[in-house]
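re: that chain from earlier
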Amino acid sequence: MELIKPGININIVGRMKVAAICSLAMIIVSILSLILHGGPRFGIDFAGGTLVQIQFQEDTTVNEIRSGLEKINLEGSTIQQFGYKDNNEFLIRTEKSTSDLKGLSGEIEEALTATYGKDSFDVRRVEIVGPKVGKDLRQKGIKAMFIALIGILIYITWRFEFRYAIGAIIALTHDVIITVGVFSLLDKEFTLPIIAALLTIIGYSLNDTIVVFDRIRENVRKSRKQSLQEVINSSINQVLSRTFLTSGTTLLVVLALFFLGGAVIHDFAFALLVGILVGTYSSVFIASPTILIWETFKPSKRKRGK
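^ sequence. v structure.
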């Protein structure tokens, strides 16, 4: 099955400057958003604190819940609806934490019981993370991404050439920054599942990029008379159908998770959704053209030998 007919010749490399400007704009917006928000909005996984998930029997509002928490001086907590509106489920997040699961959550239960009455709600989940543990998880999550990128750099340098590795790392860094930027723009929480999503995006985008690199290397050996620009352009066109098919089928699965998977994995699926779209774009317009830029400043043996 082919979505794009064989022999198509879209001038992808010719649109490299336009793609670079678009990517640069997205990266600048992402970084500015992170600066203005003081970094990602870390969930309790990284920031530490207490999270309580409560389901009410009757309809209620965030303001009513906040009023009930005034009795225990937690009116400044972050309160948001969880899942679908008719579920009447809410998440209460506070920076306070305690080693006793029943401590703070018990106080919240008592305060809400006084406001709503007994048996008017059900505590579905309580999570407590200390500030030291949160900091440790945050550092390990960032470390995991850096180790993954260094491993990729070594692997692609060994399998291809260093210029290919630089192209892949630039594309993967581009994907991560934009995905994190989208989360910052939408003020979504940055949690452990999002780190898992970012690592998944790195792997997915890399797989796509290596397919393109493999075709470029193959065509460089066969087409000695063609310029590198022509080889890169024809190579991308040759795998374009495969790229769209792979990305399209993966997107269908992620969309199903996003719309039908429930609130628990909603942000994880959203991160994958953004990452796959950006990763497919970067494999075509960022990773491969970077090889051409590298060739301009540091010609390969193939070019010097002419």
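The mean pLDDT is 83.
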